[in-house]
């Protein structure tokens, strides 16, 4: 339960207030979420009692900067959907979070920092080759922030111009459940990016496979089999490990096909 709240006047003050037992709070949908609190108990982590409210210090602006798009970390998923500047594929990824109430509160910065394996947003951002600007370490790619389990304050997300076709997908056991597998791919003349969620602790980019797809040595059912072999999901109520492997392979192969056809 939250017992102490800090309200900084600037990003710099927020960073100074951060400590190992003091957490950033943006939309609060993850931090205040009972299942997330229960999970901390199961993992033996201490409960969150002190938070730094980021609402008044984070940018909520979506603006073009040359050919790139800058998205303030405080922008909510619903604001992303409503903006005419947001790429359609990122709108689609945001809509996978079905509850409008959650989308009205959940922020893009909070989604990345929550670093959930079943995030719909992170795979899409990695496929779009997005960067984050953090208060303490400057600019780095979203993939690195997630892979290295960074916790620095995210100020904004930077989307470079899309030089290819990006496709996102997700499979759900039921309309009210969390995703069994999420995928995102991006195909351009120079690069193929393949990203899979729900198959390990965090969303993962399958870098070697992307290279093989680009040079034409891997396609169709061979690609699906290669993805299956590469991912290591854990079986749970959302599907057995074998089923999630199968889904990952077919979803990636299908999405690559769609991207090659221009989606
Ligand atoms: C019913 C329900 C359904 C959900 N479904 C999904 C789903 O399908 N997919 C999904 O991905 N998520 C889902 N979530 C989780 C959550 O809503 C999202 O991950 C959301 O985007 C988190 O954003 P937030 O702003 O609410 O983060 P918060 O809860 O405020 O924070 C989340 C984490 O990020 C840190 N943080 C927040 N902002 C920053 C920042 N700017 N810089 C650094 N650290 C920061 C916090 O300290 C905390 O550790 C769901 C939550 C609920 C309650």
Write a brief structural summary:
With 263 residues, the chain is of the alpha+beta class. It is built from eleven helices and twelve strands. It folds into three domains: 50 residues; 98 residues, Uridine Diphospho-n-acetylenolpyruvylglucosamine Reductase, domain 3 (2-Layer Sandwich), CATH 3.30.465; 96 residues, CO dehydrogenase flavoprotein, C-terminal domain (Enolase-like, domain 1, 2-Layer Sandwich).
Account of the 3D structure:
This protein has helices at 11-17, 34-42, 77-82, 88-95, 100-105, 108-114, 121-127, 142-147, 207-214, 220-230, 241-260, and strands at 4-6, 22-25, 50-53, 62-65, 68-72, 131-134, 138-141, 154-159, 165-172, 179-187, 192-197, 204-205. The termini are far apart. The chain is built from eleven helices and twelve strands. The chain is 36% helix and 22% strand. Bound molecules: flavin-adenine dinucleotide.
What brief labels describe this structure?
263 residues, Enolase-like, domain 1, 5-stranded antiparallel beta sheet, 4-stranded antiparallel beta sheet, 12 strands, 22% strand, binds flavin-adenine dinucleotide
Proportion of beta-strand residues:
15-25%
By CATH, the architecture of the largest domain is named 2-Layer Sandwich
Largest sheet: 5 strands, antiparallel
> What ligand species are in this complex?
flavin-adenine dinucleotide
Q: Give the helix proportion (percent range).
A: 25-40%
The value of Rg in angstroms is 18 Å
Would you tell me the structural class of the helices and strands?
Answer: alpha+beta
| Number of discrete domains | 3
Total helical segments = 11
Overall shape: it is: globular
| Order of SSEs | EHEHEEEHHHHHEEHEEEEEHHH
Mean pLDDT across residues:
95
* Strand elements, count: 12
Main sheet strand line-up: 4-5-8-6-7
User: Can you tell me the CATH class of the largest domain?
Assistant: Alpha Beta
Spans of at least 5 consecutive residues with low confidence: none
Q: What distance lies between the first and last C-alpha atoms, to the nearest angstrom?
A: 45 Å
What CATH calls the topology of the largest domain is: Uridine Diphospho-n-acetylenolpyruvylglucosamine Reductase, domain 3
């Amino acid at each position: 339960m939250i017992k102490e709240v800090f309200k900084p006047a600037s990003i710099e003050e927020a960073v100074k207030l951060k400590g190992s037992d003091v957490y950033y709070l943006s939309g609060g949908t993850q931090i205040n979420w009972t299942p997330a609190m229960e999970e901390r108990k199961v993992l033996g982590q201490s409960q969150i009692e002190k938070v730094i409210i980021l609402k008044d210090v984070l940018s909520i602006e979506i603006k073009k900067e040359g050919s790139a798009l800058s998205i303030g970390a405080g922008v909510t998923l619903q604001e992303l959907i409503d903006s005419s500047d947001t790429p359609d594929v990122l709108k689609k990824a945001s809509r996978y979070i079905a509850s409008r109430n959650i989308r009205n509160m959940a922020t893009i910065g909070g989604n990345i920092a929550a670093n959930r394996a079943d995030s719909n947003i992170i795979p899409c951002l990695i496929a779009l080759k997005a960067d984050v600007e953090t208060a303490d370490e400057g600019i780095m790619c979203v993939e690195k922030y997630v892979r290295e389990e960074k916790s620095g304050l995210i100020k904004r997300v930077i989307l470079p111009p899309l030089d290819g076709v990006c496709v996102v997908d997700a499979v759900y056991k039921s309309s009210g459940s969390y995703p069994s597998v999420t995928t995102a791919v991006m195909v351009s003349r120079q690069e193929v990016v393949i990203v899979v969620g729900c198959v390990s602790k965090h969303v993962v980019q399958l870098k070697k496979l992307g290279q093989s797809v680009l040079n034409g040595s891997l396609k169709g059912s061979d690609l699906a089999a290669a993805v299956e072999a590469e991912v290591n999901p854990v079986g749970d109520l959302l599907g057995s490990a074998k089923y999630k492997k199968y889904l990952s392979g077919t979803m990636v192969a299908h999405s690559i096909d769609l991207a090659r056809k221009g989606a």
